[in-house]
Amino acid sequence: MDVVKKVLAVLAMILAVVGILICVAGVIGAWALNASAKQVTAGALAAVEAYSALGSEAAQTVSSSVGEIRSVVDQMNQTLTGTSGADQAQALASVKARLNETIAPRLERAIETARTVEQTALSINQTLESVNRLPGVNVPTFGDELQLVGTRLRDVATSVEGMRTTLAESNLDQARLQAATNEAAARLGAVETSLGVAQTRLAALSAASADVKARVPGWFDILSLVISSLFILFGLGQFFLFKAGLDGLRRA
């Protein structure tokens, strides 16, 4: 019987030592991972802020181009309104020149810049999906606000192409041309609305990222402290188990 007690006491002491070693490793690991987690999260959130700044700059560039294009389209509408006879030929020549020399190249640049905005949205979401896997981090991802800008700009390009087609016809339908310019103006207005939403969203996302980046170190410190406390409590239990085994061994 004494042999069995000795074996059980020794086994308890061995398990206690193993448990204490695990607890020590756990405490060390909790704080070792703390630093790397902070670094990774801060870097990812800094990338989100950089992407947001890039997106805002690109959106502002597109907004400026769209405003200029819309101004020219409005001028074209005014030029076409009430023209007839000899004045009509001059008005159409002016419209065609503005379409080819001003609207088309600016629209092409705006669409190209919008692709940057769309890519920005994808990059932001990919980064945020990784960041949001970390405990205590939850920054909302982007919806389709930025992609919608490019889609609506391409709709404008379709309207502009319709204007070009109408201007190239031998029997020009002025009413149809004005309808096309009105459609282009309406679509440009939709682009400006989408840009306003996207810019507001980008600014909010940048602010949210900065706020989370400031809070993350505290969150990880609290998490490491909680984990360390649990390991310490478990380690105390292992210490008392070792002591009980040692006392049992002495009595056996």
Description:
α1 runs antiparallel to α4 and α2 runs antiparallel to α3. Helix content is 90%, strand content 0%. With 252 residues, it is mostly helical. It is rod-shaped, with a radius of gyration of 34 Å. It has four helices and no strands. 27% of the residues are buried.
Q: Oligomerization state of this entry?
A: single chain
The averaged pLDDT comes out at 79
Please give the radius of gyration in angstroms.
34 Å
Structural class: mainly alpha
What distance lies between the first and last C-alpha atoms, to the nearest angstrom? 9 Å
User: Ranges with pLDDT <50 over ≥5 residues?
Assistant: none
Largest sheet: none
Give the H and E element order.
HHHH
- As a percent range, the share of strand residues is under 5%
| Total number of beta strands | 0
Instruction: Estimate percent helicity.
Output: over 70%
General shape? rod-shaped
Helical stretch count?
Answer: 4
Notable features of this structure?
252 residues, rod-shaped, mainly alpha
Quick synopsis:
The protein is mainly α.
Fold topology:
Elements: H1 2-80, H2 85-131, H3 145-168, H4 174-251
Helix pairs in contact: 1-2, 1-4, 2-3, 3-4
